[in-house]
Backbone:
């Protein structure tokens, strides 16, 4: 034996080492995180597999009225632990509902939201509990129901339905916000000049 490593074996070992370094870097950067509080309602669809196992899914697009499964609303200040796995290879990330031990798969499209994952999570979560003191009575009803009602303010609608997807609502300064009810249907929330809901078009 000469003790030399063949060229194909050396190349394989080098590639494997580089891949391990890459994946460990991704894991260190995005697989973990701190527990944070949600700023807005998160609308979740709960479905059961054939074996009875529950699957929870949500989306940056809102999906504020899923047509099938059970509609679960996570209220503001729900404690979650983001787990963004291998962001280089998938658009989705997950988070755990800390007080329930439930994992939710969250669809996220950075291009359509006009921001990356870190910017998005900073916008929809807070390290500390958020105050809802500035919301009016109609806002509070909308937040509790996960709906938009005439008379709600923009902060109230955003708290009830989430931050609107940027590819349909480029700026919250607009007086027309579009939300996805599910993957195929949309709804529009119209505001008057005072920034209160004048109509909801479904």
Residues:
């Amino acid at each position: 034996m000469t003790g030399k490593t063949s060229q194909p074996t050396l190349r394989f070992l080098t590639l494997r080492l580089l891949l391990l370094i890459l994946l460990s870097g991704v894991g260190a950067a995005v697989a973990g995180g701190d527990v944070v509080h949600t700023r807005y309602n998160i609308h979740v669809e709960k479905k059961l597999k054939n074996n009875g196992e529950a699957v929870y899914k949500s989306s940056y697009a809102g999906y504020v009225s899923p047509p099938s499964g059970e509609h679960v609303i996570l209220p503001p200040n729900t404690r979650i632990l983001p787990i963004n796995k291998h962001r280089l290879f998938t658009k989705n990330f997950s988070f755990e509902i800390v007080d329930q031990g439930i994992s939710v798969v969250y669809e996220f499209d950075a291009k359509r939201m006009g921001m990356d994952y870190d910017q998005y999570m900073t916008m929809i979560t807070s390290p500390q509990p958020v105050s809802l003191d500035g919301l009016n009575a109609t806002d509070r009803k909308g937040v509790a129901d996960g709906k938009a009602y005439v008379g709600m303010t923009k902060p109230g609608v955003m708290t009830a339905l989430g931050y609107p997807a940027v590819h349909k609502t480029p700026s919250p300064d607009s007086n027309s916000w579009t939300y996805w009810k599910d993957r195929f249907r949309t709804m529009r929330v119209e505001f008057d000049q005072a920034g209160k809901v004048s109509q909801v078009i479904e």
User: Anything to note?
Assistant: DSSP finds five helices and eleven strands in the chain. The mean pLDDT is 85. The chain has two domains: 36-126, 137-201. The first helix runs from residue 7 to 30.
